[in-house]
Amino acid sequence: MPIHIEISDLDRLVLAVVLGDVTPDDIAEVAREFVKSGRQHYGKIIDTTAGNAVVDENRLAAIAAFMRADPKAGSRGPLAFVVDAKRGEIAQKFADMTADERPAKVFHSLRAARAWVRENTKVDPNLG
User: Which of 41, 50, 54, 103 could crosslink 78 through cysteines, CB 3.0-4.6 Å?
Assistant: First the structure.
């Protein structure tokens, strides 16, 4: 799979790195696996600087709707995308589409994304 995921339970952080070309099905599969993991409240960083995805707006909206339909959707943690400065339109569209549900932002630096996620992650002892 061209999307590699690392989960740190200690930091309550998910780091996904996109390598090469990804399809909308790849993205949807990662979303399904993530919901199944029960870690929606973790902060998430998706680094797309080494990858490329072609996803139309309807498919992007379907992925957002799937995430929104999860019973734990209200506890979703912040989402940061790290994108190449010359591209990143898809990440920006998804962030805009879901920003009213939880913090979502696009960055050009992994360091800035990590700092922002750390600042915006709320620790709720009931969520584990």
Answer: 103
